[in-house]
Design brief:
With 106 residues, this protein is of the alpha+beta class. It has helices at 3-20, 31-34, 55-66, 88-96; strands at residues 25-29, 43-49, 73-79, 98-99. Helix 3 links the parallel strand 2 (43-49) and strand 3. The chain is globular, with a radius of gyration of 13 Å.
Length: 106
């Protein structure tokens, strides 16, 4: 699998998330965004929401949705208010991440 495949998987996942939840942004990050992936790499995807009531419940829901797309997806939910540069993971996402847009034409 290459980066283009990871982006395609992330787009499909974004479509599944959009069908169930309103999110602000979905960003591919980690090894596929940086280009240093290998055969064992997961597909890190940040999902930024305006808000949600419970982090664990949201994480479980996002994990459930990944089963329909690809088990290598590793979803990372964030509240918009928590998505700030002082968080090292957020800093990496902003620096290296690629925002995922859903293809309108199928």
């Amino acid at each position: 699998m290459d980066k283009a495949d990871a982006v395609n998987i992330a787009q499909r996942y974004a479509g599944a998330v959009k069908a169930n939840y309103n999110y602000i942004k979905i960003i591919l990050f980690g090894s596929y965004a940086k280009g240093n992936f290998n055969d064992d790499s997961d597909i890190d995807i940040a999902v930024i929401f305006k808000d949600y009531s419970n982090l664990i419940d949201m994480q479980l829901e996002l994990m459930r949705l990944r089963r329909k797309i690809d088990s290598r997806i590793e979803p990372h939910p964030f509240r918009e208010s928590e998505f700030e540069l002082s968080n090292p993971i957020v800093n990496e996402i902003i620096k290296y991440g690629q925002e995922i847009k859903i293809n309108a034409a199928k």
